[in-house]
Amino acid sequence: MGLTHAEEATVTTDLVLDSLRRRMRAMHSLWEQAVDSMTLEQVNHVEREPVLPIAFSLFHFVQIEDGSATMLGAGDMVYDDGWATRMGLAIADHGKH
How many angstroms from the chain centroid is the CA of residue 59? Predict the structure, then answer.
């Protein structure tokens, strides 16, 4: 006996979510390995204009992931106006609106 349409949809959803979770864990692991031995000064270092510091890439990655999770139904974004104020960013927008 085969699966019902609802059961097939559930299996597909579970497979997609499992794939996304594994990919996110892999990306997090790569970022953690990349900065594990770096100092705060190294993470914030600006080599030259217009090269951005590693901190910008980390922030951008996390902010985009936060927004994507929200769009997929994970609830409100963790990064909000309160965080923007605490971080004191000159531009608190990733520019993708």
Answer: 8
Copy the structure tokens of residue 33: 């390995």
Report in angstroms the alpha-carbon separations of 48 from 61, 70, 85.
21, 35, 27
Q: Which residues have a Cβ under 8 Å from the Cβ of 45 and sit 6 or more positions away?
A: 53, 54
Question: Mean of the pLDDT values across residues 71-89?
Answer: 84
Which pTM was predicted?
0.65
Among 8, 9, 13, 4, residue whose Cα is nearest residue 73: 13
Closest by CA position to 20, among listed 74, 76, 63, 58 = 74
Contact (Cβ atoms closer than 8 angstroms) between residue 70 and residue 97: no
